[in-house]
Amino acid sequence: xxxxxxxxxxxxxxxxxxxxxxxxxxxxxxxxxxxxxxxxxxxxxxxxxxxxxxxxxxxxxxxxxxxxxxxxxxxxxxxxxxxxxxxxxxxxxxxxxxxxxxxxxxxxxxxxxxxxxxxxxxx
Length: 123
What we know:
123 residues; alpha/beta; 37% helix
């Protein structure tokens, strides 16, 4: 499943009247082999060009040092409105930061919430 298919699936599953979604991007285990800058720019283009107002917030958790180096290259290509929606979360403040924007019932258990994780599948 590519990024656009995943976005389409998320939008189809949104309740009627809900316009935005929140993403928790867990980068634990992310390394140099994952550093495909063209893919990141493509993903940003999809979000910014096709779903400019759908992203409510993107929480990035467990970001390793190498990711931050790549982030400095990608950051200038991000639209200013999108930049405001990206939050890097400190490990020590993970649950408290997520609780500022997400109800505890909707935070995955692995981040201290009450929502069991389930794989995304086409329906």
